[in-house]
Write a structure and sequence with these properties.
2 copies of one chain form a homodimer.
Chain A lengths: L13 H4 L2 H4 L17 H27 L5 E8 L5 H7 L9 E5 L5 H4 L5 H5 L7 E5 L8 H4 L5 H20 L2 E9 L2 H13 L10 H6 L2 H15 L6 E5 L3 H18 L11 H9 L4
Parallel strand pairs in A: 1-3, 1-4, 2-3, 4-5
Chain lengths: ~290, ~290
Amino acid sequence: MSKKKDRSGWESPATEALRITSTGPIATFDASSTPGFTGDKALGEKLLLERGEVLADLQELLYANGRAGDHRSVLLVLQGMDTAGKGGIVRHVGGLVDPQGLAITGFGKPTKEELAHDFLWRVHRALPAGGRIGIFDRSHYEDVLPVRVHNLVPQAEWEKRYHIINEFERELVANGTTIIKCAMVVSKSEQKARLTERLERPDKYWKYNPGDIDERGYWDAYLEAYQAIFDRCDSDSAPWYLIPADKKWFARLAVCELLIDALQRLDLDWPAADFDVEVEKKRVAALDV
Amino acid sequence: MSKKKDRSGWESPATEALRITSTGPIATFDASSTPGFTGDKALGEKLLLERGEVLADLQELLYANGRAGDHRSVLLVLQGMDTAGKGGIVRHVGGLVDPQGLAITGFGKPTKEELAHDFLWRVHRALPAGGRIGIFDRSHYEDVLPVRVHNLVPQAEWEKRYHIINEFERELVANGTTIIKCAMVVSKSEQKARLTERLERPDKYWKYNPGDIDERGYWDAYLEAYQAIFDRCDSDSAPWYLIPADKKWFARLAVCELLIDALQRLDLDWPAADFDVEVEKKRVAALDV
């Protein structure tokens, strides 16, 4: 892992420090840690504001290229235990850029229509168009996470899905989509604190789901199911990152950095004019008023 | 028009001052004016920040209710001459709220598939779900604006559309959608300045469309077509507002105020728990860790 100081607070880039190949297994991962980052909350929040502007500029560049016909896109896949803060990432990191350039999709329990198709059907339909940043709040990985934990389909079927997902993502990447996969990890104690808070404040009731406590009973089975997607569906072109989520400020900063890195690697420039600039300048200069 | 000072800078609410019934005809409307608002740019920008937080809170309330099954939604329809700044409204007003709660759709030149359906087909598909704020960047009104100006369909056909649109919007309102329709008005001189700027900066080329100059040649026909939608498709339940757009800061503040008003009129409260709070508190308290 590189130790070069790429900016204040970071001793190694988020893309390295948070990559599943660096963090080690999820079962022993510290959800309150800040891998690669030595700064505190105050610095983290200050950085998020600054880096948010960098992200917004890069997003506009991507959008402009999309409008000019570039088919490349970015897809941020968010998975995580209940209360890990996926929604907060959408709001606070997605909220840093022009909402016009976002394509946000939440994947809940499949509808009847969705169940009547193969598990990737609804995912295909939600893929970002060229120039967009897609955000999946849950994703096709649901089909090997709760589905595996609860054996919602026979093992023989979910076993096949890892390979199908890899093929699917390989095709996406080949077609110009940069994929960033983030698993947000909350500790059991922090989850309990968040559930408690949701029950104490009537303005948080709507976020509380009694089913979350039932799911918590399968904690270890989930860790195993998560580890399986890291072991079987992580690659340099569709990498998995572990986002420690006990500190919300860090999770947001980390995902912002991963997006910035993805956009910078596209090495975009403003699209060339598809018209004769000098001719148009004369036309505009000749306008009345 | 009420003269009550509802907050600093405003001498009458945006909903009154900008309503087409107050502003008078578009042909004599001053695109650099700030109807109802006596403050300057500095105050306007300060207010937008403050009011943006109010808007964000209300949007979260709407979203929470949507999650709890409330089917009500808000639909912001943006129309306007080229360069009037529709995209800027999406970015800077839409950007004030959680992007997860937005459903943004841009309506361009209809595709082959869209043309094979009636003109409202693509609009129906883009309507916001309950709990969402929909933003239409252009809309079904395109079918009586450029379509009318250029007679893209026979007059007998576009003439019928005003009535069809009114019926459509009446049905939307009856089903719980609050509709806000904004026509952004830029002056000819400001349009020329914006077109000039787009040609001077390579980072703006992508926003320049030579066709905009051709369209400008139909300025008066557009004013007439706009006036027709105000005369025929304005009602208390689906009102039209004229947004003067020469001052971007004012256009943003104005649209923010219109959204706040729409959300406040829904008179929302946090949704009640659909579970037994005391029972759940005990379950959570009993969790390990």
